[in-house]
From TrEMBL:
This is Uncharacterized protein. Keywords: Membrane, Transmembrane, Transmembrane helix. The chain crosses the membrane at residues 25-46, 58-75, 87-115, 121-145, 152-173, 193-216.
Length: 228
């Protein structure tokens, strides 16, 4: 019985991802941006610059700029629900949608790829694209839990990029502290053990850290509400 209830909650959360016209437009625009960018880069770049990895970095990065807004909207639904409403199904649904966006971006880049060796590191780049979108989505969800209203939370999703710019003179710190630097590594497909450690550090700091902080903040607010 518990399994059925959990499945129903998870499916309901997944339906919420496209539950309004605004959310459907958001997903459609995100995908169209990726497809258009892949087509434009494929048509305008020299053949040697049309490898799958070279196309994936700008395409996946562009899509990841809008995707956090969906995560913010999804957790807003949970914030408005009764105190007992769980976050887990919503976060799982957000991850699945982000993974689908990453795979769509990979398909768009694959159609535009050319050159003498277009598929070098292709498998890792596909995985990297999925991880980039999942990271972006969860950063949005975490900030949506911590900040309100929605426009403020969405503007805050650009803070990691601003941090990357601010650390320009300290390139080493960029690699350990900013999602954008991690995205570039993931989408290059050329990662060693040290690079994967940097990826793990950024994941713990941003998507995991923000969502843990958001959930703890919600629990503290619930306890204060119950006590009053």
């Amino acid at each position: 019985m518990d399994k059925v209830d959990n499945d129903t909650t998870w499916r309901a959360a997944l339906r919420q991802c496209a539950g309004t016209r605004a959310r459907r437009w958001l997903i459609a625009v995100t995908l169209l941006l990726g497809a258009a960018a892949a087509a434009a880069l494929g048509a305008g770049a020299a053949p040697q610059d049309r490898t799958f990895a070279a196309l994936s970095e700008p395409v996946q990065s562009l899509m990841s700029a809008l995707l956090p807004l969906l995560g913010i909207l999804l957790v807003r639904d949970v914030r408005r629900a009764p105190a007992a409403a769980p976050f887990g199904p919503t976060l799982l649904a957000a991850v699945l949608v982000a993974a689908a966006v990453g795979l769509f971006g990979a398909a768009a880049c694959a159609l535009a790829a050319a050159g003498p060796h277009p598929w070098r590191h292709a498998a890792l780049v596909v995985v990297g694209g999925v991880l980039v979108q999942v990271t972006a989505q969860l950063v949005g969800a975490g900030l949506g839990l911590l900040l309100r209203p929605v426009p403020v939370a969405f503007l805050a999703t650009f803070l990691p990029l601003l941090l990357w710019l601010a650390l320009g003179a300290a390139g080493g710190l960029r690699e350990w502290l900013t999602p954008y630097a991690t995205a570039r590594h993931l989408l290059s497909g050329d990662l060693d053990a040290r690079a994967w450690l940097r990826v793990l550090t950024v994941v713990v700091l941003w998507p995991v850290g923000l969502n843990v902080a958001g959930v703890l903040s919600r629990c503290a607010a619930d306890r204060r509400s119950a006590g009053s």
